[in-house]
Amino acid sequence: AQSVAQPEDQVNVAEGNPLTVKCTYSVSGNPYLFWYVQYPNRGLQFLLKYITGDNLVKGSYGFEAEFNKSQTSFHLKKPSALVSDSALYFCAVRTTDSWGKLQFGAGTQVVVTP
Amino acid sequence: GAVVSQHPSWVICKSGTSVKIECRSLDFQATTMFWYRQFPKQSLMLMATSNEGSKATYEQGVEKDKFLINHASLTLSTLTVTSAHPEDSSFYICSANVGGRDTQYFGPGTRLTVL
Fold first, then answer.
1. How far is CA A73 from CA A11, A20, B9, B44, in A?
2. Minimum Cα–Cα distance from A37: chain B residue
3. CB B91: neighbour CB atoms within 10 A?
4. CB contact under 8 A, A43 and B44
5. Contact A43 B108 (CB under 8 A)
6. Which secondary structure element, helix H or strand E, spans residue B67, and what is its range?
7. Taking a C-beta distance cutoff of 8 angstroms, is the pair A11, A110 a contact?
8. Which residues of chain B neighbour A34 with C-beta distances below 8 Å?
9. pLDDT 10s digits, A67-109
10. Which of B44, B30, B111, B36 is nearest to B76 (CA)?
11. Residue A96 sits at the chain B interface (C-beta within 8 Å)
12. Residue B65: left (phi > 0), alpha (psi -120 to 50), or beta?
């Protein structure tokens, strides 16, 4: 069975500092990994995904993520955080069923202070 | 990009009534849509997978007769919460895959409050 873990409930960072949100996964076979962001009372917005290819994936709003197979990790990063990056971030892995269902992590609340 | 809409964005209803939530793919056709439920500050819980022209596939523990799903066209799926009770109050979110691609695009969500 596929699963993802986000070990941090909340990450606090000062504006302008690097931001990292951690995610580890457990899958059988090749992983399809995703990051989404959710603002209050809104749906999820797609940030980036890893399917195959380069381990460093660049996404929306200046975010990137690094796929590390040996550590089974897919951490989300941004070199310089903005106050507007404060939101709830979800890591997800696609299941192997034919419908493409996603298994989400518990989510990490990012708080960027001015 | 792919746009998914939901209607209504919020609804308040009395206990015992039924509420219908619509999910539409605006600029693409979606053979498969997904319905999620989210409690405050929690992750998304997949309720069911909605397939155009066929019955929905429900996750374990989700009551089929309470959460009726209809996917009548390639751009519309509906979730009807029947005989709603206060414990059904939640944030309901739908999503869709674009033409079989891997990425799911999400609607803005519907906040249901049952009094």
1. 17, 12, 35, 21
2. B106
3. 20
4. no
5. yes
6. strand B67-73
7. yes
8. 103-104
9. 999 999 999 999 999 999 999 999 999 877 667 788 899 999 9
10. B30
11. no
12. alpha
Q: Do B109 and A51 touch (CB under 8 A)?
A: no
Residues counted in chain B: 115
Q: What's the token pair of residue A67?
A: 């796929």
Candidate from B102, B103, B106 with C-beta closest to A43: B106
pLDDT, tens digit, 9 for 90 and up, residues A40-59: 888 899 999 998 889 999 99
pLDDT 10s digits, B51-91: 888 889 999 999 999 999 998 888 999 999 999 999 999 99
* Interchain proximity B109–A102, CB inside 8 Å: no
SS3 state of residue A56: strand
B109 and A43: CB-CB below 8 Å?
Answer: yes
> What are the phi and psi torsion angles at B67 (to 5°)?
-115, 90
Strand B44-51, strand B19-25: pairing: unpaired
How distant is the alpha carbon of residue B88 from its chain centre? 13
